[in-house]
Predict the 3D structure of the following.
Amino acid sequence: MYLATILDAYSRKCVGWNLSKRIDTQLALGALEKALATRDVKPGLIHHSDRGVQYASTAYVERLLNVQALISMSAVGNPYDNAKAESFFKTLKQEEVYLKQYQTFEEAETNIGQFIEECLCFSLVTRCLSLAVIYLNPYSCTSHKPVPSTLLPFAHLSTGLLLTS
């Protein structure tokens, strides 16, 4: 099974995700559509992804251009600019996927989705603690700290192999 996610680089929240048995354009588009549905997207959004063919597909690029996003892709052989997504996937795998034996695709989708929706990212917990807002989840925590006006909205998309069947 494959998971595509869209992470907000400022808050590190997962704002869109999609699980599929295939790694293709529809996998990535599903995550993108979920993210776009939850955000007030303005022209100039920077969308960064790895160099997967699904992110360079005509359908995916056209959808980004429709919302006037600026498209950025990782440099060849440079995994460092994907560190936030890799960290997210590491946490997901260690705290959810490796601890369960999913019997069906639907069970995996339900459990992984619930984990993504309810997960406290360590960077957000640290930020919340520094703001003395210790009883809030990442979604409400980030609303207590305004985004500096000098920062552009930014999304990071990555696909990671979770399980093999």
